[in-house]
Specification:
This protein is mostly beta strands. Helices cover 10% and strands 59% of the residues. The strands form 2 sheets. It has an 8-stranded antiparallel sheet. Strands 7-10 form a two-stranded antiparallel ribbon. A hairpin with a 2-residue loop joins strand 2 and strand 3. The chain is elongated, with a radius of gyration of 18 Å.
Amino acid sequence: PVSRVFNFQLGPLPDMNITSGRGVLDLHVKGSMDFVNIDGFGAFDNAALTYKELYGKVTNVKGRLDFKDDIINIKTEKAFLSGNPVSISGKVKINDKLDFNIALLKAEASDLLETVNKSRILKDVKNGLSLFKSAEGNADLAVNIKADIVPVPFGQPPLPPEEAFKNIKTAGAASLNGIKCFLNGFNTPVENV
């Protein structure tokens, strides 16, 4: 895990498990663990990773992390979540706040439902889609995730994801592109939604 490299809370970064790929990391770190300044970048290509709070494996990732003082900007050029194209972008302020956008376009609706239903960080989105029992066809999903990062005292390891964030807020929109779905409480499918 990335947490072996960094010993302070970088939002979700320490809890990502990178299983394959290539990358370049060029960082200049100064300050203390209480107040750190990082300048540089990380670039990765053909990476695969998992994150405990988000169900599914993110594969074929090409993207970049830009570090400036205590801000990290994250942007993917290309990535797939459970086989569906996904765009991930956002900003993390070390030991303070995170603000992420995740967009899945023309994804298989059944995969979207499974990802939302099994991802702890998307529980508000899950509540919004609780009407759906199952779905077939293509759909788009855009989600914004904001949270406060629990600061980690000097010398302590990063917190596990279930303790690292508080005041998690998610907002988003789903666009259903003529899908067929079953709604909870109904036995007949609804088509062309």
